[in-house]
Amino acid sequence: MDEKLALRILSISIYNSAMTQSPRRATPADQANPVAIEPLIAFSDVHVGFDEGDVLRGISFEVWPGETKILLGETGTGKTLIMKLGAGLLRADSGRIWVMGHELSEMHEQELLAFRRHLGFVFQEGALFDSITVAENVGFRLREENLPDAKIEARVREVLRFVELESTYDMFPGDLSGGMRRRVSIARALADRPPMVFYDSPTAGLDPVTSQTIITLIMRGRDLQDVTSLIATHRVQDAFGLANYRFDEASGRVMHLNGNSQQAAQQQGNSHRTTPTNVLVLREGQIYFEGAADDLLHTSDEYLKKFLASAE
Predict the structure, then answer these.
(1) With left for phi above 0 and alpha for psi between -120 and 50, is residue 235 left, alpha or beta?
(2) 26 CB contacts (<8 Å, ≥6 apart)?
(3) Which tens digit of pLDDT belongs to each residue from 23-68?
């Protein structure tokens, strides 16, 4: 067993829903290769309020390397707020947040700007720049890093090919459909190979077929590139799809995660790609449920049953 696989198995085996100690601050070496035995994200007793009142009331959770964490909850429960806190776009009123070894409350704005370059973020509605081409949107961060033009073009074409939109290279966002714009935003988030990607309502406003395409792309990033993801969504089927299916590299297809597909993955030597997908359900500013999607589906809790019945 190689070292990378051993570390990943260890990180999964010690997963728990309650953080027991503060992650240490990352060293420069860690930033280039995040340590697999510590969470990439850790929220500890985080509170945030506005004039209308408290929105988050003591949020604590972790996201481990290779994990997909899905935030569910009714409108206004703080899903997008958690994403912005984790990306350092907002500061908490109290509590502590670590991301990739950094405690965000201790960082100045210039440090946060540099820190965000190591994250991918897919905003609601895509948030593309309409005045520049698709290629320029996708390569925007790469140009900020002053990479050679040839490398930028090669990487932009690679990620556009990954989301099956290389043909849009010279087009403008206004020429694309809503689903295509969302796929371009995913390509932009993946352009510099971040270890962690935030997806804020990636399927909002899309039809069911296009929504499934987006979820498949997220699945491919997870299973082929080992991307750790934090996803806020209003669609419970997004959570169950990511939890119960994987993207098989050999066949190029989505496969159900039953005993046979897991055994096949092991035989192909890529069992480490069967990574955990866990769900947080937010209610009244707190975590009401945290666990596997299957446990949520078979819950006996009356609130959760009503939530699942009423959700899309």
Answers:
(1) beta
(2) 34, 35, 100, 101, 102
(3) 444 444 444 444 457 899 999 999 999 887 889 999 999 999 989 9
Sheet of 119-122, strand order: 119-122, 196-200, 228-232, 68-73, 277-283, 286-292
Query: Measured between alpha carbons, how far is 138 from 148 in angstroms, rounded to an integer?
Result: 15
| DSSP code, position 155 | H
| Structure tokens, 46 | 């985080």
H or E element: which one contains 279?
strand 277-283
| Token representation of residue 141 | 């961060």
SS3 256: strand
Contacts of 104 (CB under 8 A, 6+ apart): 85, 88, 91, 97, 98, 112, 115
CA distances, 52 to each of 72, 75, 294 (Å): 22, 15, 35
CA atoms within 13 A on the CB side of 199: 33
For the full predicted model, state whether its pTM sits above 0.90.
Answer: no
| Encoded amino acid at 287, one letter | I
Chain position carrying tokens 């419970």: 236
Q: Residue 42: name the closest of 25, 26, 27, 22 by CA.
A: 22
Note the pLDDT tens digit of each residue in 124-166. Answer: 776 899 999 999 999 998 988 888 999 999 999 999 999 999 9
- Tokens 């320029």, residue? 136
Count other C-beta atoms under 10 Å from residue 191's C-beta.
Answer: 22
End-to-end CA distance of the chain: 42
3-class SS of residue 126? coil
H or E segment to which residue 133 belongs: none
Task: Summarize pLDDT for 167-185 with one digit per residue, the tens.
Answer: 999 999 999 998 899 999 9
**CA-to-CA dists, residue 14 to 8, 9, 11, 216, angstroms:** 10, 9, 6, 28
In order of 109, 122, 186, the CA distances from 221 in angstroms are 29, 13, 10
